[in-house]
Amino acid sequence: MSLIKIEDIAFVRFHAPDLARMHGFLDDFGLQVIARDDRRLFARGAGRAPVLHVTELGEPGFAGLALRAGSLADLATLAAAEGAPVAPLDAPGGGQVVVLHDPDGHRVEVVAGQEAPAEAPLPAPAAWNSVRERRRLGDLKRVAPGPSHVVRLGHCVLNVADFRASERWYKERFGFITSDEIAVTPTLSIGAFLRCDRGETPTDHHTLFIVQGPHGPGFNHAAFEVADLDDLMAGHDRLKAAGHTSEWGVGRHILGSQVFDYWRDPWGHTLEHWTDGDLLTAAQGGGAASLMELLGVQWGPHAPPTMA
Ligand SMILES: [Fe+2]
Asked: What does the DSSP 8-state code read for residue 60?
């Protein structure tokens, strides 16, 4: 039994030495900068989270992730167990936060009580015609060029020093369930895709992926859900035309099944666009998977060396 059950990932934080440059990248990536002063930049998506991406002025680097608790009562439970204070969250949407650090020292904020803004408009949905089903009759499809419409943050991937220690830390506190554990041999696992325990409510195949790799602990990537496949492809063209660095994609993952497209921000942090991922209930359990399944694709280019 975990201390609490978190509902979702909330936002990610980075440090960067040039907020104007980050602002330009976020515009091309499809996040909306909603607040900016001389030392911080806050961006949101089209969904109801008030903030998804925070940049603070400083040497470039990952500065932590935030998870969303179900209630202020859960936050109080966590704070009491950890001996950590509940403090106001200094970000758009307000709310409260408890700041923890995982076994590798990654800053993990747990937030609750944020005010949800109204959803921003998305492109009108257009049905797909296939040979099995002609669903768009008499309507022309026209995809507007421009950045993807990022709706929400879906997951974060962390490289960890000790998979089992990190797995225990995250599961004991937040109620994560294993969707797929990456087994190198029958007795050695190096990572796991973890999802939230939302009971009967289907939730993303992974909200957090932790993996023990050759490079030691650190940030791997953060992944943002976009409106749909057309929206992802339009955004790909926009990022390419703007001269940003593509890392991997477009393809379809095996584990989680998402259509993915990985890019680098101006300081080399990997941010992913994705759509059409698997959604699982708590009762659907999990299984073991191989490295080949982790890095393989259902279609699309092979993983580059930077992803291995
Ligand atoms: Fe991902």
From this structure: S
From the CA of 38, how far away is ligand 1's center (Å)?
Answer: 31
pLDDT digits (tens, 9 = 90+) for 29-52: 999 999 999 999 999 999 999 999
Alpha carbon of 259 to ligand 1 centroid (Å): 10
Which of 6, 121, 124, 136 shows the shortest CA–CA distance to 66? 6
pLDDT digits (tens, 9 = 90+) for 204-258: 999 999 999 888 999 999 999 999 999 999 999 999 999 999 999 999 999 999 9
Tokens of 52: 């998804």
Q: Are 171 and 194 in contact (CB under 8 A)?
A: yes
| DSSP sequence for 235-296 | HHHHHHHTTPEEEEEEEEESSS--EEEEEE-TTS-EEEEEES--EE-GGG--EEE-HHHHH-
pLDDT (tens digit, 9 = 90+) per residue, 263-274?
Answer: 999 999 999 999
Residue whose tokens read 């089992």:
164
Using CA atoms, how far residue 303 sits from 121, 142, 258, 274, in Å, is 34, 31, 15, 16
- Distance from the alpha carbon of residue 130 to the mean position of ligand 1, in angstroms: 28
β-sheet with 287-289: strand ranges across? 287-289, 177-185, 188-195, 208-211, 150-159, 218-226, 270-275, 259-264, 245-253, 297-299
